Q: What sequence folds into this?
């Protein structure tokens, strides 16, 4: 029972960064833009959030306020990743560059950006950057009092606030996309920008906002990976620590068929798969094979959504296509 | 459009340029690289280093000595090979983001032969066999998404992306599973026998000759053959291709097999020529960077030679600046990213121009 409990907890912690990346990319893709720079934006968010809290801690002389450090970390991560998304948006929306290629270039840039500044900060700090126990606790501790309830406390209230934030964003995003006028407009932009344009929707503005805010959300995932003590990073910059998460998030977007609520479940499944070998040994299946499962499942979903032909499961119709009003 | 909108002509609007002379287009691309280097220079300056000295050492450390030049070539060769692999697929507007995986599959089969059969075959036969087999398997790996795209229209960008991680995950399984080197603490695939390592010409494995031959091959294939023409027509309009009697699924699958096969050959070069072993990072991002190389070259194989050489210089040179200045080697990724993003942006100025609103308002008022 104890193993099972620890397994579930580990799965949730592994799922949270994926969920951020997935939600950010869902918002982006709903505007018709396939941003393959998720990984790059996560790196940018991660390093900026770490830098923000690290220098804030330094400025306070090693006695930071937990709440302020959390706010600074989130703001820095969000804004920096948003900056990455802004570069992407400017190139693909205003300058009409190819989306796939621009996204890949952003991943190259963002990965380099994260590792470069992570190491620069490390060198300046004499070895490596590391935040103190107060900030680590602020980013990792569960809900006080409630988390001490046996079993349920550990299962429901013991997580970092990031986990609750990710689920809250998922619910908000689902509500926004499906129940609000603005969300409907955004979906229209992603399905058929020409129609949306004719209906008087400001296509460019919607695309910019969705891509940039989506990028910011991805950045929070990066910050979480950097701050999470469970995976051995814990407020230290580890070279390439974010590598692979961004691509997994791109996969989960498909796995979840572009639905924010399904993304919660899907990222949990993928998170569970990624930590399963540490808790249970399953005979005949090598632990390294587990890591392929998410991608295999994604391929299966990609094929299945074609056959099921359910409208709501299909990718946005104009995903990856540029829209130029003058070239209709 | 309502009458009100006619009156309000925007301050700046975008119009398509008729045709830019190749010279001017070249100038625009070249200045975009300068802008990127300038931005990179500002970052270097902000960190308290002299940008000119840093750039000088990048050139020095990558080109100005025999060993440096060889190391740079070893980076440029697979990058160019992968870009050549991607070119036919992209010409067809089939967004093959799977070169990374196709390279890996080619590397896996080459490794299988190198670990199991190297002593049994004469050396030239061994290389010919591994070359062909890696091409076939790389091609088959590329054929999977092409088949689904041609038959059912699945999204090839996402499909090929996922196949990358399946191939790389499989390498990880082989590395810590059946192919693990028993004599090592760290789980890794054993180093290849000397006989399984590609011979060198001028200090670089013979892959460079093969890749240069491929440059010519792809150029002729894309511009002078029936296949190349079919690829271009399918890329422009699938309906046109279908009405003119082309077998579109066949063209898609054939082209992706070729694309994957060339990537597979790159994988063969990487394990037999550069690394002499297989690891999770054998493909090392070449498949991704190559996409941008191919795109920025406008799919012209000769321009790809220049761009991949340039990126190789940056990558090799940043190892030098790490030793000389203590600047992290990740600087190469930042610079590469900056250059790619700036060049992508510059394409706009080649294809479009800004039209400013005229001062005098027309007769509509």
A:
């Amino acid at each position: 029972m104890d193993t099972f409990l620890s397994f579930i907890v580990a799965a949730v912690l592994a799922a949270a960064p994926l969920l951020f990346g997935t939600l950010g990319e869902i918002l982006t893709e709903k505007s018709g833009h396939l941003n393959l720079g998720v990984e790059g934006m996560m790196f940018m968010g991660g390093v900026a959030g770490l830098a923000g809290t690290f220098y804030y801690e330094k400025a306070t002389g090693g006695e930071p306020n937990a709440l302020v450090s959390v706010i600074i970390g989130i703001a820095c991560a969000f804004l920096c990743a948003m900056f990455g998304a802004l570069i992407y948006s400017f190139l693909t929306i205003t300058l009409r560059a190819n989306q796939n290629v621009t996204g890949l270039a952003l991943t190259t840039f963002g990965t380099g950006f994260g590792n470069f500044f992570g190491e620069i900060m490390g060198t300046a700090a004499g070895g490596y950057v590391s935040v103190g126990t107060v900030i680590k606790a602020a980013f990792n501790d569960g809900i006080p009092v409630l988390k001490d309830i046996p079993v349920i406390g550990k299962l429901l209230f013991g997580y970092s606030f990031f986990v609750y934030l990710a689920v809250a964003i998922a619910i908000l995003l689902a509500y926004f996309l499906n129940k609000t006028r603005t969300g409907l407009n955004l979906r229209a932009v992603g399905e058929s920008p020409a129609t949306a344009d004719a209906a008087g929707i400001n296509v460019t503005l919607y695309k910019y906002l969705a891509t940039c805010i989506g990028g910011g959300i991805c950045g929070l995932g990066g910050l979480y990976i950097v701050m999470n003590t469970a995976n051995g990073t814990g407020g230290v910059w580890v070279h390439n620590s974010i590598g692979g998460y961004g691509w997994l998030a791109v996969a989960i977007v498909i796995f979840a068929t572009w639905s924010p609520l399904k993304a919660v479940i899907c990222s949990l499944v993928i998170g569970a798969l990624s930590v399963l070998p540490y808790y249970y040994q399953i005979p005949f299946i090598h632990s390294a094979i587990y890591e392929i499962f998410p991608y295999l499942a994604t391929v299966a979903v990609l094929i299945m959504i074609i056959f099921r032909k359910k409208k709501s499961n299909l990718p946005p119709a104009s995903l990856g296509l540029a829209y130029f009003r003058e070239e209709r | 459009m309502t009458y009100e909108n006619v009156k309000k002509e925007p301050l700046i609007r975008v119009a398509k340029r008729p045709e830019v002379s190749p010279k001017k287009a070249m100038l625009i691309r070249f200045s975009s690289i300068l802008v990127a280097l300038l931005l990179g220079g500002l970052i270097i300056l902000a960190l308290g280093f002299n940008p000119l000295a840093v750039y000088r050492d990048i050139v020095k450390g990558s080109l100005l000595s025999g060993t440096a030049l060889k190391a740079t070539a070893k980076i440029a060769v697979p990058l160019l090979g992968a870009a050549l692999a991607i070119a036919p697929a992209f010409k067809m507007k089939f967004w093959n983001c799977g070169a990374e995986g196709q390279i890996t599959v080619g590397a896996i089969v080459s490794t299988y032969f190198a670990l199991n059969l190297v002593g049994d075959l004469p050396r030239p036969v061994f290389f010919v066999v591994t070359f062909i087999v890696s091409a076939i398997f790389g091609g088959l790996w590329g054929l999977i998404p092409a088949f689904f795209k041609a038959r059912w229209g699945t999204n090839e960008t996402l499909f090929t992306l996922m196949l990358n991680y399946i191939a790389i995950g499989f390498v990880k399984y082989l590395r810590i599973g059946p192919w693990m080197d028993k004599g090592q603490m760290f789980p890794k695939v054993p180093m290849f026998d000397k006989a399984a390592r590609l011979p060198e010409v001028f200090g670089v494995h013979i892959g460079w000759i093969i890749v240069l031959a491929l440059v010519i091959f792809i150029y002729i294939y894309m511009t002078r053959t029936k296949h190349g023409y079919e690829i271009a027509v399918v890329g422009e309009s699938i309906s046109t291709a279908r009405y003119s009697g082309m077998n579109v699924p066949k063209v898609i699958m054939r082209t992706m097999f070729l694309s994957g096969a060339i990537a597979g050959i790159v994988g063969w070069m990487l394990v037999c020529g550069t690394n002499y072993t297989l690891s999770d990072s054998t493909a090392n991002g070449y498949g991704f960077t190559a996409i941008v190389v191919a795109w920025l070259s406008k799919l012209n194989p000769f321009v790809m030679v220049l761009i991949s050489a340039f990126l190789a210089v940056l990558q090799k040179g940043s190892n030098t600046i790490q030793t000389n200045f203590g600047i992290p080697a990740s600087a190469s990724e930042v610079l590469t990213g900056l250059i790619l993003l700036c060049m992508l942006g510059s394409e706009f100025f080649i294809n479009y121009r800004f039209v400013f609103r005229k001062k005098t308002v027309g007769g509509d008022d």
